[in-house]
Design a protein that fits this description.
6-stranded antiparallel β-sheet, alpha+beta, 6-stranded mixed β-sheet, elongated, about 800 residues, single chain
């Protein structure tokens, strides 16, 4: 166990000690007595830490049983003096008896570093990159290392005996000397003190330094002076400034969706950290929300001043103020940036050069020298490959030229601002489009159809509330049927109006598929849910106030009336059922309609109800701006609806005038529809066998029926062709019973039903094909055609335009 180490002279220099688990000495060899003077009888069983100076006693042992420790400690000699000791403590393995720790100790005073000369100290400190200075109690320089010469103020000899305020007068030396005096007075060190100033080595640019101050005391604790270190952290300081400026830009730019407001935010963010005076000019098209075209080289460009930022309000006086427009001449740097999309920088401006934005008649172009502008940068505002304008940076208060780092910083946060300006431009464009959409949202006229007589009224909310999302529609369907739709978007404003247009368009598109009401609402619900997911993702860069409420939670009531069967089928997504009044003016009834969840909310599936509806019945579809509580709808609507002799146009106006105030808080929409039925003479239907032999007979029956209706021979010829192709396809590709129906309305409708749910496809047959041209021929002769699915199969239908003279005549039986 008594392992030793040997010095370079071959003599043993290390002391080996054994300690038990409690850190008590188990051995005290002669070498330990020679090192510290204590006798073995005084030391065996004594805690080893009692040998150490009080400051070193704590933490001298390993923190865990398996750890080791090494370092420099101070031990107490028997005569009271301090002895520096290099110590290594190692844990012993199990089986070593009571010994738990092995300690190797050596006199650290034998190292040459403890007796190094002043010359060695000078050479060592001279290689340290940080500046080191020692000052006396009068704050006069006593000593400094070679590194201090890089900070200006002369050599070590030139510094000697002088105070910092005399060595570096432009470095704000008073603040630094105040720190030195504080350390002298209190004895407490000041560490990592950050100071920004202009050293003598670079008097035209700010530099950042990290400084630490420590008091020097003699053996009695009397202060002798202060030693401080200096490290240049300018690069780190500037990097932090750039990050802070970019963070500030991210926080303040983009709070508005107005391009001009965003431009003003950009100008204010750059002052004063980067520039003393900033102007932002946008192309005229950007202000309007349009996409600007390319700037032509060699021609003046008209820009609108959209943002001004200055450290001194009103100084310098800009060539034109916010909102004013001026033409920049082709030879100026701003137009060059707009043309090539590249930034421009001038470390020193010609004081006799006139300001660039001088295109206002009657206004003198002030030279840069009179404005006090010394240096400038121009950065184009570009997003998505489009140049939107320019940002010009100037310095007037400090004689510090813009450098490449400044330009890179300006380009980075202008690029961030450009995204927001482009978003604002796009939003302006979309807002204007939404306003146009809102004006064209409601039907300007009822499409031609024979199923219902319709009257409607829409009253928007007042200006304070904003335009809402109430809407209605009348959509002609196949088979002479018609769809009546009413809905309401949650919220108000532009987003609600835009969403209203989107839902109306979606319903019209889905209606063309001839879906049942509950299926149509299910597809609409899926669409709204997808839009809501997209909006949630978009909230990462836009606030909910800017996004609006969207279509999530909107309601819709979809009603289909069939004038042939005189029946009605409807389904609801969070909307109250319509009021129904029979042809005799009886009490108002509300169908027992299961009201499904609002669009995008999820929950139970949508259900529809179907019931007969005699000709002359009146349906009232409304929104909550007219009647807020569906429970009171009967009492509110019935007095009006029981006046059958009143024309619908007058009735709908009277109802809205009395049920909704002139300037309602919420939008109010009302759609009234009085049903009509097609006369039996307008419909002809036949049940057919699935036999090719019936095709010829079908043509004959169709021709005879058109003759009975008084339709011309040309229409009879095309109808025979349509009937022949549809029946042939049904016999060839379908199964079960086949039905043929002709309906004479405003158009001639031909329908063929079968028991198959297979979807027919239009294709272009090759020249050598013997078939495959049926639907193609039908598409050429028919005004429109399509497929409608039923519980028993499908119906393929085609509509043909009637002759003009017959269109103007009443239909048979009307």
């Amino acid at each position: 166990m008594a392992a030793t180490e040997s010095g370079s002279d071959g003599t043993d220099t290390a002391v080996t000690l054994l300690l038990d688990a409690g850190g008590r000495l188990l051995s005290w060899p002669d070498r330990a007595q020679r090192l510290l003077g204590h006798l073995p009888g005084d030391m065996i069983g004594r805690p080893a830490v009692t040998l150490l100076a009080s400051d070193d006693a704590a933490g001298a042992m390993p923190s865990s049983p398996d750890a080791s420790w090494s370092g420099l400690l101070t031990a107490r000699h028997r005569d009271g003096r301090e002895v520096p000791v290099e110590v290594r403590v190692v844990a012993l393995p199990d089986g070593a008896g009571d010994a738990r720790w092995l300690v190797l100790a050596e006199d650290a005073g034998r190292s040459p570093l403890w007796g190094m000369s002043p010359e060695l100290l000078r050479r060592m400190t001279g290689r340290i990159p940080a500046g080191l200075v020692v000052v006396d109690t009068e704050l006069r320089c006593v000593w400094s290392n070679n590194a201090m010469e890089r900070f200006g103020g002369g050599t070590a000899q030139e510094r000697r005996g002088r105070r910092l305020r005399d060595i570096q007068p432009g470095l704000k030396a008073e603040a630094l000397e105040a720190q030195m005096q504080k350390v002298l007075d209190t004895g407490l060190p000041v560490l990592d003190y950050e100071h920004v100033g202009r050293p003598g080595s670079d008097p035209y640019r700010d530099h950042a330094h990290s400084m630490s101050f420590v008091r020097l005391d003699d053996d009695t604790g009397h202060p002798l002076g202060v030693c401080y270190s200096v490290t240049d952290i300018t690069d780190r300081h500037r990097a932090l400034q750039r990050l802070a400026l970019l963070d500030r830009a991210s926080e303040h730019i983009g709070r508005s969706l107005d391009p001009a407001r965003t431009a003003q935010d950009l100008a204010e963010v750059a002052v004063p950290e980067l520039a003393d005076f900033v102007v932002v000019d946008l192309l005229e098209a950007v202000i309007r929300g349009a996409e600007p075209g390319p700037v032509t080289d060699g021609e003046p460009v008209r820009l609108r001043r959209s943002g001004i930022g200055s450290v001194r309000e009103g100084h310098p006086t800009p060539a034109f103020r916010i909102g004013e427009s001026a033409a920049y001449q082709a030879s100026t740097p701003p137009v060059g940036c707009l043309t090539d999309g590249k930034s421009w920088r001038a470390e020193r401006l010609d004081p006799d050069e006139p300001e660039w934005g001088s295109g206002i008649p009657g206004r003198r172009a002030t030279p840069f020298g009179e404005l006090g502008v010394r240096t400038a940068m121009v950065v184009p505002i570009r997003a998505q490959g489009i140049t939107l304008g320019i940002t010009s940076f100037f310095r007037t208060q400090r004689d510090l030229p813009f450098d490449e780092d400044d330009l890179r910083l300006a380009e980075e946060f202008v690029a961030r601002a450009a995204v927001w300006i482009d978003n604002a431009r796009r939003y302006t464009r979309e807002r204007d489009a939404a306003l146009v959409l809102q004006r064209s949202l409601l039907p300007h006229g009822i499409p031609p159809q024979e199923a219902v007589d319709v009257a409607s009224c829409y009253r928007p909310a007042d200006e304070l509330t904003g335009v809402g999302g109430d809407w209605f529609d009348v959509i002609p369907l196949s088979g002479a049927r018609v769809a009546l739709v009413v809905g309401e978007v949650i919220g108000h404003g532009i987003e609600a109006a835009a969403t209203m247009g989107q839902l109306r368009t979606a319903v019209r598109t889905l209606a063309d598929l001839d879906l049942r009401p509950e299926e149509l609402l299910a597809h609409l619900d899926d669409l709204v849910s997808q839009v809501a997911r997209d909006e949630r993702a978009e909230r990462e860069i836009r606030t909910e106030q800017e996004l609006g409420t969207g279509s999530l939670g909107s309601s819709c009531l979809y009603v289909v009336y069939d004038p042939v069967a005189r029946s009605c089928v409807m389904a609801s997504a969070g909307h109250p059922p319509p009021a129904v009044i029979g042809p005799g003016g009886d009490e108002a009834e509300f169908p027992d309609l299961p009201v499904g969840p609002a669009l995008g909310v999820g929950g139970l599936p949508f259900e529809s109800v179907e019931f007969g509806l005699p000709e002359g019945s009146l349906l009232a579809l409304y929104t909550d701006g007219l009647i807020a509580d569906p429970e009171t709808a009967r009492y509110a609507l019935e007095p009006f609806l029981r006046v059958p002799e009143l024309p619908l146009e007058r009735l709908v106006t009277r109802m809205v005038d009395e049920l909704a105030p002139e300037r309602p808080f919420d939008d109010a929409a009302l759609l009234l529809a009085r049903t009509r039925g097609l006369d039996a003479g307008q419909v002809a239907s036949w049940e057919l066998a699935a036999d090719p032999a019936v095709v010829g007979r079908c043509r004959e029956m169709a021709a005879a029926q058109l003759g009975a209706w008084g339709l011309d021979e040309e229409l009879a010829f095309t109808t025979e062709l349509v009937v022949s192709e549809l029946v042939t396809n049904a016999i060839r590709h379908a199964s079960g019973p086949i039905g043929l129906r002709l309906i004479l309305e405003r158009t001639l409708i031909c329908e063929v039903s079968d028991a198959s749910s297979t979807t027919p496809h239009l294709r272009h047959a090759r020249t050598t094909d013997e078939g495959g041209r049926g639907l193609f021929l039908i598409s050429q002769f028919a005004q429109r055609w399509g497929t409608r699915y039923t519980a028993d199969g499908k119906i393929i239908w085609a509509e043909q335009q009637l002759g003009r003279q017959l269109e103007q005549q009443p239909a048979p039986g009307a």
